[in-house]
Design a protein that fits this description.
Helices cover 26% and strands 25% of the residues. The strands form two sheets. A seven-stranded mixed β-sheet has the order 3-4-6-8-7-9-10. By secondary structure, it is α/β, with parallel strands linked by helices. It is globular and about 80 Å long. It has one domain: Alpha/Beta hydrolase fold, catalytic domain (Rossmann fold, 3-Layer(aba) Sandwich), CATH 3.40.50. Keywords: Hydrolase, Signal.
Length: 233
């Protein structure tokens, strides 16, 4: 076979192009998923655009250990910090009646909505309503408020109904576990919201229906922590 000098000179260039083509096939495209480093933990979230502004949302972050089984009628304990946290989907809803497949007693999760690469923004913690017997933080979309208000929005689940508020008058069930869940969620905000660009010293409580009542109760509680204001309208 006859090979010309020109063909020999172009061989290295062709090999280089083939190598780049091969690399493009095996290297996955860069991900736009936001990532927050939280005391060594990597929290992966989702990115969306609202009102021409990019919003990051981190869903289903565990703020307390499971309250199922033997922990059913106990105060919540802070969640262990995992090395990697998947914040791309909502956590389970707390059980209500009627029970469905999206519910679980292991339901103490929260959601964070923040403008992209936020820095020291005020925080709004919004408590869902439902008469203390129904509802979920999954029903509240904080994207628009985060984008339009230039704030960080946090929503969370808390135990409901019998599991959240039954009191037997003795040590079997002292009651108000739903309120203790709310306090634990606020504790999480105080500790970790700074890693999402929030100001832990500028936290406002708000809510709807039972959530508004909860905000009022927590504002009067000695366990309210560092919340700067409460709105119960």
């Amino acid at each position: 076979m006859h090979v010309t000098a020109a063909e020999v000179r172009t061989t290295p260039a062709l090999l280089l192009l083939l190598m780049w083509q091969w690399l493009l096939l095996i290297i996955p495209p860069c991900s736009n998923e936001p990532l927050v480093l939280m005391m060594g933990a990597k929290v992966k979230g989702l990115e969306t655009t609202v009102s021409n502004r990019t919003v990051w949302k981190f869903l289903g972050i565990r703020y307390a250990k499971s309250t199922a089984g033997l922990e059913r009628f106990q105060r919540p304990l802070p969640a262990d910090l995992l090395a990697e946290i998947d914040g791309t989907r909502f956590g389970a809803r707390c059980p209500t009646s009627p029970f469905d497949s999206g519910m679980s007693e292991d339901c103490l999760f929260l959601n964070v909505y923040t403008p992209k690469e936020a820095r020291k923004l005020p925080v709004l913690v919004f408590i869902h309503g439902g008469g203390f017997v129904s509802g979920s933080s999954n029903d509240i979309d904080g994207e628009v408020l985060a984008a339009e208000g230039d704030i960080i929005v946090v929503t969370f689940n808390y135990r409901l109904g019998v599991l959240g508020f039954m009191c037997t008058g003795d040590n079997s069930s002292r009651g108000n576990y739903g309120l203790w869940d709310q306090r634990m969620a606020l504790k999480w905000v105080e500790t970790y919201i700074q890693y999402f660009g929030g100001d832990e010293k500028s936290v406002t409580l708000a809510g709807m229906s039972a959530g508004a009542a909860s905000a009022a109760i927590l504002s009067l509680s000695p366990f309210r922590g560092t919340c700067s204001a409460a709105s119960s309208k």
